[in-house]
Amino acid sequence: MNRYIRKLQTEHEHGIVQLGFLDDATQRMNQKGFSEEDFKIVKKSSAFISNEIRQHNESEEINLFPLLENHLSQNGPTQVMRAEHRILWNKLNKFDKSIADVESDKNNLEFLKNLRSNAQRIVDLLSEHIYKENNILFPMAEKILTENELKLLAEIG
Ligand SMILES: [Fe+2]
Ligand SMILES: [Fe+2]
Q1: pTM
Q2: What is the gyration radius of the CA atoms in the chain, in angstroms?
Q3: What is the pLDDT at residue 75?
Q4: Residue 147 contacts by C-beta under 8 Å, 6 or more apart in sequence?
Q5: Can you give the pLDDT at residue 74?
Q6: What are the phi and psi torsion angles at 35 (to 5°)?
Q7: Per-chain mean pLDDT for the chain
Q8: What DSSP line would sit under 68-82, residue for residue?
Q9: Whose atoms come closest to the Cα of 84: which ligand?
Q10: CA 130 to ligand 2 center in whole angstroms
């Protein structure tokens, strides 16, 4: 496998681990009430998505998608992936607001419920997004990109 694409896949694996933590922690607090330990996990996962995942997505948009777009129509799968990146940022903004709400009133059950549902939307969207890239977009890239394009990518990774 191409070095750069493998790097993206490894980053996906780290993302999936964080999503699992986020899913579990928000579910526990929704069921059992606020806990400092779980809240710490939630804030850490949110920071991971804002930093590592954002950088990862930007790298895809700068390095990989334009090369794929040399071969695909403008309304192809890369446009769908770009749109999903934008949807993720919107959801993350809402999620960060619900983190701030919980911070302001830790025992408010409504706030914990919102935190859970906003987290769940991110977990669902991002895991599906990652699944599509791993199973559709990346194999497609290795098939349709030229030797030269793959070499360019490998030099980045
Ligand atoms: Fe992506
Ligand atoms: Fe990705």
Answers
A1: 0.95
A2: 18
A3: 76
A4: none
A5: 73
A6: -140, 135
A7: 96
A8: HHTTS-TTSHHHHHH
A9: 1
A10: 6
DSSP H helices in the chain: 3-32, 36-48, 54-59, 65-69, 77-104, 109-132, 138-144, 147-156
Domain region containing 46? 3-156
Q: How many angstroms does the Cα of residue 137 sit away from the middle of ligand 1?
A: 10
- Six token digits for residue 66: 């334009």
> What CATH number is attached to the domain comprising 136?
1.20.120.520
pLDDT of residue 82: 97
> d(Cα 82, Cα 68) in Å, to the nearest integer?
13
**Nearest CA among 106, 11, 16 for reference residue 63:** 11
The token pair at 122 is 């991110």
- Domains of the chain: total: 1
pLDDT digits (tens, 9 = 90+) for 7-52: 999 999 999 999 999 999 999 999 999 999 999 999 999 999 999 9
